[in-house]
Amino acid sequence: MVVVLNGKKVELADDVQNVRALLASYQLQEKIVVVEQNGEIIDRSRYEEAPIMDGDRIEIVHFVGGG
């Protein structure tokens, strides 16, 4: 399936069926991130149940510490 991820078209592996699997595929599951799917921010508690569909627009923002 093809989605738009952070502004770029990306083809996802067949096993990436939800937001949690997407984050795991990019090794972001343990980081503090905000995920927006088709204009809606997905609550962290819903990552497992938030399906990803062909053509979805997904933005992932992760925070980097510094000073």
TrEMBL record:
Pfam families: ThiS
Highest taxon of the lineage: Bacteria
InterPro entries the UniProt entry points to: Beta-grasp_dom_sf, Mopterin_synth/thiamin_S_b, Thi_S, ThiS/MoaD-like
Entries under NCBIfam families matching the protein: thiS
Name of the protein in its database record: Sulfur carrier protein ThiS
Organism: Brevibacillus nitrificans
Biological classification of the source: Bacteria, Bacillati, Bacillota, Bacilli, Bacillales
Gene: thiS
